[in-house]
Design a protein that fits this description.
The chain is an alpha/beta fold and 394 residues long. The chain has two domains: 254 residues, Type I PLP-dependent aspartate aminotransferase-like (Major domain) (Aspartate Aminotransferase, domain 2, 3-Layer(aba) Sandwich), CATH 3.40.640.10; 133 residues, Aspartate Aminotransferase, domain 1 (Alpha-Beta Complex), CATH 3.90.1150.10. The protein contains 16 helices and twelve strands. Helix 7 links the parallel strand 4 and strand 5. Helix 3 packs parallel to helix 11 and helix 4 runs parallel beside helix 5. The chain is globular and about 75 Å long. The mean pLDDT is 96. The structure holds pyridoxal-5'-phosphate (PLP). The site of pyridoxal-5'-phosphate has 12 residues, from helix 4. The site of pyridoxal-5'-phosphate (PLP) has 12 residues, from helix 4.
Length: 394
């Protein structure tokens, strides 16, 4: 099947189907550690790369291949490579690209563990330096990206403030110094945003979020050129071992069949909730990329076909006021996760962003009255009522 001929709705269901000799209709789960060879000669040729074929599931597995092919087709990429988690994808990317003396430039509003991987706790130990840009301003990025920069990394829209970064402009700066430009596309998924078509070199995914979509299994992936994925990253990953389990690949692969319909529904629900929150007298400010009041709404609408599931807002009041709203919910789950059909509610300053210093939290505007919602697929009316219960008490 030639991927260019089909829409994302079709690719999400049909791309990457590998049928076994049994002709199963639904994609098969190959729960096996190793694969059998017909002769000593065949085994030898497979091991030295002369013959294609499966050897061992740390290297390759047909169910994992199906997931990789489907994700690559959706992102419009040559290839993808699956990892055990999103963080395995990000640490694999950094270790594959960087050597001692190299330099990473990252947005400061990326996933917290990502900053730890790029910074002193992990890459810093191997002599890689990291500069953090705490701004969407192109001037700030131009100052940070310089010769010697190997990796430029960002997440857009950001979590939880929904800042939108200009992928094409920052990509151009990375290209000028020969750096690889990677975008964590976990929030939008290829259904809402395709970073490669905007100038990114690589896309990073936590498949534990929307790709699965129901919060069941962990997974991750790197997406890009065949050379990057199938040679460089593959050689690193088959040796170091953070490969995706076939069962997890199978769950995510089947989850992706409903990704287009889910992402559009998440975006619709989130926009409706964001607009309602904006009109509520006890809400001070709402952050959501597709709100008319968002400072980068025009850029967001150029880069994304929907606003995604995640919004945040501040209540008129302090931390206890925010906690009151969180504690009043009956439907939403109080959990740090996102990318699930179940709506989740989080108080970032005391949980997901609780380990940051106060100064860092202030710089990122993670105030004590801020609440993040990852909007799921329950009814809009029920979600509004769930938040109104707490807000109306303030
Ligand atoms: C969750 C998340 C990750 C990490 O993924 P895991 O699968 O939990 O390792 C990375 N980036 C973003 C944007 C995330 O939300």
């Amino acid at each position: 099947m030639n991927d260019h001929d089909y829409s994302l709705d079709t690719l999400a269901i049909r791309a990457g189907g590998l049928r076994s000799p049994f002709n199963e209709h639904s994609e098969a789960l190959f729960a096996t550690v190793s694969f059998v060879h017909e002769s000593a000669e065949m085994a030898a040729k497979r091991f030295n790369g002369e013959l294609p074929g499966y050897i061992y599931s740390r290297f390759t597995n047909p169910t994992v291949d199906m997931f990789e092919q489907r994700l690559a087709a959706l992102e419009g990429a040559e290839a993808a490579i699956a990892t055990s988690t999103g963080m395995a994808a990000i640490s694999t990317l950094a270790m594959t690209l960087c050597s001692a003396g190299d330099h990473i430039v990252t947005s400061g509003s990326v996933f917290g563990s990502t900053l730890n991987v790029f910074g002193a706790p992990v890459m810093g130990k191997f002599g890689v330096t990291c500069e953090v840009v705490n701004s969407t301003s192109l001037d700030a990025w131009a100052k940070a990206i310089k010769p010697g920069t190997k990796l430029v990394f960002l997440e857009t829209p950001s979590n939880p403030m929904a800042d939108v970064f200009d992928i094409a402009a920052i990509g151009e700066m990375a290209r000028k110094v020969g750096a690889t430009f990677a975008v964590d596309n976990c929030f939008c998924t290829p259904i809402l945003q395709r970073p490669l078509s905007l100038g990114a070199d690589m896309v990073v995914h936590s498949a534990s979020k929307h790709l699965d979509g129901q919060g069941r299994v962990m997974g991750g992936a790197l997406v890009g050129t065949k050379e990057m994925c199938r040679e460089k990253v593959y050689n690193f990953l088959r040796t170091t071992g953070a490969s995706l389990a076939p069962f997890n690949a199978w769950v995510i692969l089947k989850g992706m069949e409903t990704l287009p319909i889910r992402m559009r529904a998440h975006s619709e629900n989130a926009l409706a909730l964001a607009e309602w929150l904006e009109s509520h007298p006890k809400v001070a400010k709402v952050n959501y990329p597709f709100l008319a009041s968002h400072p980068s709404v025009a850029l967001a609408k150029r880069q994304q076909s929907g606003g995604g599931a995640v919004l945040s807002f501040t209540v008129k009041g302090d931390k206890l006021a925010a906690w009151k709203v969180v504690d009043a919910v009956k439907i939403m789950s109080i959990t740090g996760n996102l990318g699930d059909v179940k709506t989740t509610i989080t108080h970032p300053s005391s949980t997901t962003h609780g380990r940051m210093t106060q100064a860092a939290r202030d710089a990122a505007a993670i105030t004590d009255n801020l609440i993040r919602i990852a909007v799921g697929l329950e009814s809009q009316e029920d979600l509004r009522a769930d938040l109104a219960r707490g807000l109306d008490q303030l």
